[in-house]
Amino acid sequence: MARRRVAVIGLDSLDPTLIRVWAHNGVMPTFGRLFRDAAWSLSQTPDAFYVGAVWPSLTMSVNALRHGRYCYSQLRPGSYRNAWHWVTELKREHFWSHLSIAGRRVAIFDVPKSKPSAALNGTEIIDWGTHDPERLGFMASPNGTAEHIRRHYGKEPVGSCDNVGPGAGAAADFVAHLHQRLASKEAIARDILSDESWDFAAVGFAESHCVGHRLWSVHDTAHPRHDRAVAAAIGDPIRDVYAALDAALGRLLERIPPDISVLVVASHGIGPHYDGTHLMKEVLKRINRGLPHGRIPMPSLEPLLGFAAVPTEGNWRSTLRSIKTGAERSIEKSFFIPNNEAFLGVRVNLIGREPAGRIRPGDEFEGYTDALIDELALLTNGPDGPPAFLRVARTRDLYGVDDIGTFPDIVAEWVRSGPYNSLNSAMIGAVHGRYDGVRTGDHVPNGLVFALGPGMPTGAQADVAHIDLGPSVANLLGVAPADWDGRPYPFLPAA
After folding, report:
1. Closest to 215 measured CA to CA, from 442, 448, 444
2. Which of 97, 246, 316, 492 has its CA 20 to 30 A from that of 278?
3. What are 123's strand-pairing partners?
4. Tens of pLDDT along 165-216?
5. Whole-structure pTM over 0.90, yes or no?
6. Cβ–Cβ under 8 Å, residues 308 and 455
7. Pick from 45, 44, 49: which is nearest to 68 by CA?
């Protein structure tokens, strides 16, 4: 039997809508050829948690509740505190660990949100140049790999994508650094993919993620923060980075032998950063004052106790913030918790689960949750504006489980038709405030996957899911599946 080999090229937050437009008009000719010559599908992202859970779901092949990540900062069990979620806390292993145990040699480079694998049969390079790298920092195995990368390619030049100053000069420098990093990353990927020793290789590119968050308002002429002077000076930075990624992808594909199966994965999309997350703390307080459920606030020492055991930002200000947040949450019937910003996340202060719970399990929990969902659904963007949320749902219903761990009880998907300067309803009146963050772009759901190689069909195929990536790779390599939620893409050639 001929040797089977599979390569995955991951493009972090390369927007499907922009890909289609620019593939059609010639800005991204490589993707134009992929739409014509490869099998391609829309790839469904994890519902409600697709920002924080997107890459673990892709690489672990299980749903968000099973791998345990929904946000960069998550609620700690049995407490009111949020703390940084470390990738080492992920409850599952990446699917390439399963391939390694099955005897396949692997090569992994900058796949986002990767945790170190134990005794991997191959090479693993983590967070050399990703968006929002994890706090473990740049790591590589086997011994000597990290030093080889540093010696031959140096340190990645971008740093934090959020640390971009105002004006055309700072934006131009940022984009130049993204192009510089892309060139180095392409060289590293080329060297990895040219090595014939691997059976499975995965390389990731994050430049589209960085530019999408930080410079969406330069690309989007309708955005309220659009700066004509910056756009006139530097053009459309998102188009330029997308075109450069397309060209790099084309060169890499040209070097991959035709007998290797290749999956090109665009993880999720990007669009304008329109949501009312910055208003929700006060909104939720007002709603809770109007809902007649729950026992009176119970005093709790939990905010003061045990915080030292929780990973923090490492300074006294963050510790004080943690104490203050815990004290505020402990007296509320429910409280807002971070879920990135595409979906609102609300946690009910449940008796027996939270340290100073106010809502009783059973009928009261069900009645309170119903009432809260109803009130959230009535919120509007402005006094006479459209609804704030496309939908409001229980996490347990979306995922079909009762035990949601530390995930939000309720999630609500923002309508992103325009900026939020106030949230309004009959119960809360109006809560005013402007978003003052530096990111003018934020995520939208769903991605694209392209497949080419021996026996692959061409053209549009049925939708697939992010959790299907691992089973698909295993199927192509002739490896039995593990305990995964996904299944192989239905259009793959027979194993």
Report:
1. 442
2. 316
3. 107
4. 889 999 999 999 999 999 999 999 999 999 999 999 999 999 999 999 999 9
5. yes
6. no
7. 49
